[in-house]
Amino acid sequence: MKRVFIVVLDSVGIGALPDADLYGDVGSHTLYSASTSGYFHMPNMQRLGLFHIDGVRGKVSPDTSMQTRDGQPFEGAVARMLEQSKGKDTTTGHWEIAGIISEQPFPTYPEGFPEEVLKPFEERTGRKVLCNRPYSGTDVIRDYGKEHVETGALIVYTSADSVFQVAAHEDIIPVQELYRYCEIAREILTGKHAVGRVIARPFTGEYPDYKRTSNRHDFSLEPSTTLMDLLKEKGFDVLGVGKIYDIFAGKGITDTVRTRDNAEGIERLIERTERDFEGLCFVNLVDTDMIYGHRNDIDGYAKALTYFDEQLPRVLAGLRKEDILIVTADHGCDPATPSTDHSREYVPLVVYGEGIRPGINLGTRSTFADIAATILDYFKVESRVAGKSFLPEILK
Questions:
Q1: For residue 18, which of 82, 173, 317, 326 sits 20 to 30 Å off, Cα-Cα?
Q2: pTM of the prediction?
Q3: Residue ranges of the chain with pLDDT lower than 50?
Q4: Assigned superfamily of 115-220
């Protein structure tokens, strides 16, 4: 019984891509920035090979004296991956991991959304809109939350990513009603305004101490054929953990569970290593990006990575003979740069399992989609997605 586990450490980039200048991200290196914190400690990922990846070795020096199984310097197969898609957002990155290369970037709104979007949204929801410009999610409820509570107007904002975000107090607008408003926005945002995600951002509390809740929900565009669709067609299980279901609009997913934070996401992952299934478990751990990267919190970012590393032995202990664990990322979000937005970076690829050859460095892969092609190859499913399998290079 074969199982593959993909764990996306959200935004853990490992150095600026060659075209980073087009995105204002020259010099970004998210993992290195996190490593400058005294709270950073990842010996288990080091053992699997993270710090032997090209471009990482020069930034974070591994303990080269560490010898692991078979006398190799590290126990997994590793590479860095280049993003072929245009963009640097969550949807684009995850879709490419699943085999879709996005030739056109999703639209962004640095000046806010135009009247042709907001007018029908206000008419169909029966509520006015506040803000309508790029904003930090915590700052926007601080600055507009009181007016929202007093008037019932919806807080609509965006970021450097292709997102239409709607914030509302749960006592003023029940969560299910907020979701309905976001579904309306999703229907409106098509064609040239087809943003990657519409996001419900409920919050609670009293002014000025408003707090976002875990009832966030993403309404994504529906992707074309992905790795998950092809596995599902052949009768394999496809388990989603965290926001995977939202990112892919539920398409190709046979089982899903939402999570509040990384700690819960890791627990749900461990539970699934104990479950009998054949197929894929796709996990997103979002705290590094959502809580720390976007807030330029280097120590927080480092603590989140350290916590994952501390829990990793529990994940590895649940792996069976034919299981494969893949640890990767979807983009960068360097907490040490002036920007609070995502950064255009290479992402790591760390592959581990009893059947994986240790100490293999695959260099630089030309697309994240190589992950999709490799997994389909492992399950002997014909690939109809982008990417090239590296399975022959890593299997014993």
A1: 326
A2: 0.92
A3: 64
A4: Phosphopentomutase (3.30.70.1250)
